[in-house]
Protein 1
Amino acid sequence: MLSPRFLLLRSAASLTTRSLCAGGVSKQGRAPDMVEVRNRLREIVGASTNWSDHQQAMAERVSLSSMLAKSQNDLPAKRMKDSYLEVHLPLGSEPQLREKYLTFHNTVRFGRILEDLDSLAVLISYSHTYNAALKRSPLSIVTALVDKIDMRQHIIYPDCDIKFTGHVTWVGKTSIEAKMHMSQYRDGAYAPVLDATFVMVARDPENKRAAFVNPLKPEGPEDEKLLQEGEANKSRRVDLSTASLLKVAPTDEERKIVHSLFLNTLDTKTVSFRSRVLPPNSVWMEDAKLKGLEICHPQERNIFNRIFGGFLMRKAYELGWANACSFGGCRPSLVAVDDILFQKPVEIGSLLLLSSQVCYTQGKYIQVRVHSEVFDPLSRQHNTTNVFHFTFTSDRDVPNIIPNTYGESMLYLDGKRHFNQTVEN
């Protein structure tokens, strides 16, 4: 269980205009830590740390609907530097804090880093939409998509301070792209660890309908470049959605790959469509699964009375990592997190089913897909909430993953697409 200090960090929607000043610097003249980040998020929306009070506070937010802008033109344009934040995680100077981030192997739990990034992305978005005339923000800002997390180095040291920086780089009418960078202090300087791009969406106080956000005004060529990259990211996401294997057939090249996999598994003795033989150094996809169950308690809620997205990411990552570890026979290293889609919020009290699947391998690389769904034991209905994609690398070549059905073949091709996108970038 987290200490009170880091219970604050878990609430991905609770920060105060008083605890952080413009430019992401606290009134004490230092960069804020994650405690101040979560404190500020809580105050921005008027959330409480108490479960019963929290429910009442959320009910009171309904009255804030009248403060919403009728159109984006009614909102002042903001600069990228208006949302810039720098936040510290003092792992080196606070041993008690370090305990919450340690693995058994004396490395940093990357799932905790995912939680921190999610909280920071929310605060960056609220900084962009900040209105000094309002005591509380009428906006409910939630994570829609983790577009990309690229690892710049595989090792995160547990006894060295970490610094997060980030700001808004693109906005639509109701959506916000936030780019964040994580670095770690070692050998007298901060070295880059990862780059992350999150897409956030603004909703009304009841978190039911879309709400407008401030337009973004670039200043200088560097801002213009970031804005163009944001537009390119949006176009890429639209193209990927359009070409989804859930919507259209595989390409000619992909169909040849699937047929080649089928031919390589034919039993040469029977030469039958029904008789399949596993090639050497290979594993059937059916045998490369790992599943888990989470009961969603109030402790894991965000400031909007739903399950914190960072918690979902942490659980999915840890399950995916365990599957990759089991499959590869060694401790894998994370290469990238790609295209985490938040399709539906997870309510308090839900039964959350997590299923990880090794869906593609190449050399030392392992592509893992984690599917999460909520299960209603009364209605017996399943509803997908999230899909996660993780790319890991092993210290040795891993077995080839082989699909056995058409559905598994589609998972294979989807995993190959995500892997290729990671390698190309």
Protein 2
Amino acid sequence: MSTALFRKPLCSALVLFNKTLHRCPEKRRYAIKSGILERVVAAFQSISGDAGVSLGDTVREQHGRDESVHRCHPPDVVVFPRSVEEVSALAKICHHHRLPIIPFGTGTGLEGGVGAVRGGVCFSMRKMDQVLDLHQEDFDVTVEPGVTRKALNSYLRDTGLWFPVDPGADASLCGMAATSASGTNAVRYGTMRENVLNLEVVLADGTVLHTAGRGRRSRKTSAGYNLTNLFVGSEGTLGVLTKATLRLYGIPETMVSAVCSFPSVQAAVDSTVQVLQAGVPIARIEFLDDVMIDACNRFNSLSYPVAPTLFLEFHGSTRSLEEQVAITEIAKDNGGSDFSWAQDEESRGRLWKARHDAWYAALALRPGCKAYATDVCVPLSCLPEVVVATKKDLIRNGLTGPIAGHVGDGNFHCIMVLDPNDQEEVGQVHQFTERLARRALAMDGTCTGEHGVGLGKRVLLREEVGPLAIEVMQGLKATLDPKNLMNPGKVL
């Protein structure tokens, strides 16, 4: 396919990027015609009750945006279903009237995935918040879409089990499945893609699908196409996730955390690769550059050395942890110093607070500005080169973009802090994010390791997978959602 076909979308992407930095637009008219709106609202109320349907401006705006810089796109109506039967019945009404359906969990996404860019109906899943089926002996659990990561682990507190996928925010678990979320523990426990066993999905026409078969929860299967992973990462464009069956893990006997400073980005990232190559079963290994660690120090009144820094955590038995910690002498060979260790839960919590607050610490560098989080992932062997090149790019262009990343699996972020009213800076940030994404693609990586495509990376997705793969995706979309009602305007 001619590269000329990509030029117009790239120009459009710049316009979109500029426009999306304003989060709360003026009140807009409903996209649904008033006569149809009245009829569908009445039909919705007959299913979910008056309290289960909202036309209020404030509620609509709350459900028209996530934590990204993309502008608010309020839906015409917000519904709050209480069961899969209600979701199915509401979807059938939307299908009949050709109304877009936008699933909404907690709104913690970072790529504008919940905006109602074509109007329609937001399905807010917060009232479906039950842990339905726990099998302790089998290490699995089934949850409704309103259950968040923290709520599940609180429920599991006395069982000796936990769910380790941790994207930072207290996201809903079905929302995490929809975006194929990852996080700090992925290097040991994997991402959502490896930890979802089965999904219950309501399709655009109201049909209820069980991706691995009703009630199935085996740890592995060779039976047919992998429909579960088709929906993991689909970002609400193929159906509404109404249940998820998830893998659980035993809480480790012992956990030890450490912080270590390095003389350079290269030394820190080299240590990451060498620790993993040594076969150390590390649970977390996170990188913060000097700008990010300085921001975290200021935000949390900490005193870590202002230098490239690794945060590490080991899980296992007391004996195995001694072996793991000994192997981290690798870090010292790369100039690592100022080790801080923590073993009890309170000390580890304080240590990791800096990493978990990185987003807010970055924003505090420039009060009144907005943040845009990049998200690329490359093969581990390419990680030192791409991080060093990115750091040089930021310095050369005078941009505020502290780096933080889940470097144990090759994934890192630049948290770009910018003034949305400075069009020159907006353009510079856009150009930087394009360079960063293409730098990752040139190293056989991906334009998004965990945030998803949403609104902002549709052009980059096409460049990453190629036109044939896009055609296959469009064919799957057309088969499952021929009227293009499920979260239209996203991903493809």
Protein 3
Amino acid sequence: MTNNSNGRLSEYFANDPPSFFDELTTSKPKAKEGQQPADKPSSSISSSNMLATTFTGTFQPPEYVETAEAEEPIKVSDDVRNLWQVPTPNEAGGLSTHLVMPGIHIANDLPDPISIAVTQQLGEAELQQRQILGVENVTQDERGIRTLINAGCFRAAVNLTGRLLTIYGQGYGRAGQPAKHSPHSLQLWFTRLALLAKLDEYDLLQAEAEPFGQLNGPDVFYEFYPEMYNGKQGSIACFSFRLLLAELPIYLGKPHLALDQLSELHVISNEIKQHYEGLKQATAAEFWQRRAERVLQSIINCALMMKKFSMIDDIMGGMLLSRSSLSKEEQRSLYSAWGRIYLQIGDIFGAEQKFAVSRRLREINSTPDLRDLVDKGLIAVAKNDFPEAYLIFQKALHLDSGNTMILNNMGVCLLYAGKLKDAINLYERAINLNPQKSLNESLLVNLSTLYELESNNSKAKKLNLLRLINRFKPDLTISVEICLKLQATN
């Protein structure tokens, strides 16, 4: 994570899925497909992988990963960044007088499910080995939230946002009560809701997001508080907050609704871009162009869920790749992502064509890099050539040792090639070398599945994994029971 010099919490999610930020390319998706081993790889080009809304805990196929870009690399003034018009009654169907009145929906802190599982499965003595940061161990402010997020203590960070929002008069039981909004209070809400999405806490997310609607209330604009902001205009809420709320129905299995909301967000972003083009403000226009493109990535996610593949082609070819100011590396990233989408729908020939264009955009005479090797490895998987795919992913691992996506894919290849024990050894070695990084959800699901395939007595090995999780992982973004395929004890 980079130093957050401007104090915006959103930077602290830039490389984490799910993420809701203004990136051109994307970070790794959260493994949630729940598919059987015979399936081909699946993923999304967006940093928030929302192709499925349930996770069944079955073996995870090879993963796609996109390289994350820095959030909003173009620096612009606050006037440009916050430009958004207060909806008139006609535009909002009479809703422009409806105030945004949110509140926390749980009276107590989110519990620590790892602690609960350890207590149930291993006992109090083992729980004493759990040493993680809690709300009480950090400063009670935005800096404390950043500290918790950096440490991977996402539930504790949610709990701290609750305390800080309570100070703003927006705590438990305050939903429906008027409250003044500020950039800081809305940033706290955005951080809280993004964390709830990351943690799959969808019921709570839906309840707490509901009062915000699509952020069309007059009290989330500077114009509502002339005495406080001295004539400042535009949206108090950040663009990423608007994107999160537009994407929210995807999590709830309603991609059609998300598509409508995202399409509206894209239209507005494009209109703002054209506004700045008319003013001959090229930097501002480019800034909003990239925001519009970020919305298109989420629209592609919806199209994947809805199997609207022609829409994806139209967006990729007609809108994303048509921009003349794209760098070669940006074009390369997009063609690679496009190829991975073709792989997902089973079109190997189409994928190879897109990957070939991506390769041609690489620096002349440069050796294959991580993107090339992963693309090539995924093609080998799609052709059921698992020994070849393993060798390719092995080369990729030399370029990025400890990359859990590549390790996962190598283990999948070994399993498909009939080398069960080798796959187990690979995962165990990775965990022993770097438990903090390698105890990721997808790898845990895979290793637990391999233990079950190897022996009827797999529970002892799974409990050893639970001991490691207890000591090295502050949070998992899916339940321990699903990760380790353990039945909760009563």
Protein 4
Amino acid sequence: MGETLQGSATMPQPQPLSASHIGSFAYLTVKDRLPVILTRVVDYLYREKDSLGNNYGKAAREDCKKVIGRCSQLKNEMQTNKDLLPLQAHPDPSYPYDDANIWNRYLENYIRVTGVAPKWFTAPWLYVECYMYTRIHESLYLCNVLKDFDPFMDQKRNALIDSKEAIEALAVHVLSLCGRISTFSQEQLKQHVIKLIEISLWGNRCDLSISGGADKSQDSDVLLLLDKLQSKILVNNSESLWQLLVALPEDQRDIVLVLDNAGFELVTDLCLLAFLTEAGFVTSLTVHPKIRPWFVSDTTHSDLTWTIEKLRETGGSAGVLASKWQSYISNGRWKIVNNKFWTLCHDFADMKEIDPELYSQLSKSSLIIFKGDLNYRKLTGDLDWPTTTSLEHTLRGFCPAPVLAIRTAKGGPVVGLAPGVSERTAAVTHDWNISGEYGMIQLCTFS
């Protein structure tokens, strides 16, 4: 970890966003949104403790009480701006994703560098928000029965089920495209790829952590909205992305997808990758989910497998498409890889130091797609960059392979904008950078 606690690069950089700025989105997140998320976890476990007891055994009821107590304590620590505490190691020494020592080293280094203990309203926002979800996970893995339980599981699954009509409409479209690939001209193929990238972008609006866990399903056919939403894309490097894809040698079409939200967004991502696979632009895909419940709606490995199975059971075009995804996984063209780096507080400029093996693996890919706000915050260090700063500059040396960032702006930095764009957008929508109304498709090739 760099001495600045903000990445390993040495170039001058702004301060990290934090809740110390009263009225900022970071402040409102720590003051309001995060306590609401903790309250929802507590309420859910209290309401479902009998059901969980029936499913997992009566010891689960006692586990519920323990988790409720730990999360209630965590909420009190947050609201009274207490010091962030060290994490307890996972009780199972064979657990492969125990990262308490990494978190505790970060905490120790923070105190050594700054001279003070990190507090909820003064430490970097990225750090404290990731820390909260890690503490939620700690409250579970210290249990006997519920150690692997996901308290956000029902919310994520309901979000998918409530989006079934939009998913079916998208599946009909994608299957039709896949069946006609051989008939498309190069220009037609390009336009279909770009449309599916835009669909993946707008799928990112369905983020449960932003709404505090309230319903964020997709209840309309996103295909009908694309033309209207075109002007809302503030940076659109789709043309450059297309040029990159068509220039890739046939033996170097290895794509990495670092996932964001489960539910409708996950479906849009898999639709995009399925079409790219069928069209021959992807020969190998590596998908990175989260290894623990994370930011309410982030996709875990079990979310991914459940989504595919649920859609296969549902039938229709969505079921056919889900079977296609499963076949890619079964035959090895798509690989699912778990790595604990994605659920640390470190931003990606620290990856070479914290997880050099992961950085080396990513360096072998032809393109890395990062979905969503949290990945964007970690790409840019969650620093207070001017909006006209280039994306490449904000990456601070993170350059294993070409990077494609796809997100709707729901908090954190926005970079890579042309001069005047942020001012003109703010004049139309004052909360443009947190509302999810505006999106970015940004490619960095480091050339």
